[in-house]
Amino acid sequence: MTAKPRVGLFVTCLVDLVRPQVGFAAVKLLEQAGCQVEVPAAQTCCGQPAWNAGADAHAVDIARQTIAAFEGFDHVVVPSGSCGGMIKRHYPEVFEKDEAWLARARALAAKTHELMSFLVKVRGMSGVTAQFAKTVCVHDSCSSLREMGVKAEPRALLGSVSGLTIDELKDQQTCCGFGGLFSVKYPEISERMADDKIADALSTKATVLTGGDLGCLLHLKGRMARQGKALEVRHAAEILADMGGEPALGEP
Questions:
Q1: How far is the C-alpha of 173 from the C-alpha of 145, rounded, in Å?
Q2: Range of the domain at 60
């Protein structure tokens, strides 16, 4: 019997603090894909906010802790293109001048995957048994698209959900305006970008906005709530894992 691959789940700060159900959904999907899943207790933030802010020393400390916590696994899986991109693309930059840690960072980067990409490309998952009788539109985060190369995989899996229909956004390549610290430094620009994305979503027949990055989804849901616009928002992992027990994002 072939041993199950050991997968370390990098939960992400937002999932841990705001929407733990996304983490449970990720575990369920990974186990369905035949993986042994572990969630290292030593994990914290991926370090992206510090790195983006130029706080390089803090980013180094956080990255070292993450590498130490996850380097013993066969794979590292992240339900977020943003955090996945930090580990896979930017950790080698963090340790560019530290040869010993650079080697460890590159080794971890090589086995780090965004959740839905891992399910489809690594584990060969072609469908799920979930049911979700609604029309959805899919938001692709900048990091998922440009750093992790993820686009077709969530659509392939969502397309297998019983009752689900996808009505695509017209402008799939544009940022929602979150961008981590960007939304803090440039709130007026961020809000306008969110408004454009929301208008695009509302122009479809979808009643649900979904995607693979909780930061983007929270940003858009919060903006809609302040404007009194109704559109259900769910992380794609929740739909794929058939986990509808909790309210949609931002609902009581």
A1: 8
A2: 6-121
